[in-house]
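Worked problem 6 (solution included).
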Amino acid sequence: RDQDYDATERLGAWNGFAYLVAEEGSAAWLDLEITGGVPGPLPAVAMPTAEVRSLRIGEIVPLDDPRFSASAGSRGMWEPLAFMEELGAGLFLLEPHVEGRTPVVLVHGMGGYPQEYRQLVASLDLARFEPWLVQYPSGWELTAVADYLSRGLIELTQTLSVTELCLVSHSMGGVVLRVVLAARRDLAASVRTVVTLGSPHRGTAAARWLPPVLPELRALRRRSPVLASLPSLVERVPHARVVTIAAEADTVVYPLETALVPGSEQVVLRGMGHAGLLTRRVAHDAVRAALDGG
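Solution. The predicted structure is:
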């Protein structure tokens, strides 16, 4: 009402609302009567459903598309509502699906974007694997982002009759995957391989130095109740190969052991930091080795 945010006010609500169109003509005043009361507690941010135009599933889009750029990733972190209205979240293909190829779902982290995976995509054996790109506003709550991803994966796997998936994530993307797999057992059954790159499975000490302006920053702190409530990847997909990769010089996700899941195949890469997990050849080799053995 006063154009200022107060602690007791909700952060925002947007659900792809349609315009209310009145009959032709003009009116000096319009009375709206809302009846029926509020149907229960409202969430902090009302999320769109799968039918809303902002969720795009199965579109074929080139990796050079601006919506996959660094600027889009930054906007998704700091202006998630504008991101949803103008770009939209979704699960994208780079080319038409080919029967017999195994999809490799690539999930970026906080402030991330699909073009970060350009070098990894180029290193994959495209005769065997098919990159699927996840795009989402990383400034939104984890459960809402996970709902987007699970809806997209279920719809696309059913539409294309896909029975096996490989999941690859960087940073917070690994936590998003954990939320997805915790909520959807039916989806977990189709997972063949999971690879996480520098994901804060047990939080990161770096989060304590950041202002908690985003709900994700609070969730990624060490001993976070959100992370503690999630089953580990090994528990959720015991039939799958789970590989957790950490960078020895990572100053974003640390200490080192937070990126390594007990019971998983653990890989520590020396002489690189958080970003190097996406750009260095040795990291790509580790991901390909995990996919080949899955």
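Discussion: Residues 8-19, 41-53 have pLDDT under 50 and may be disordered.
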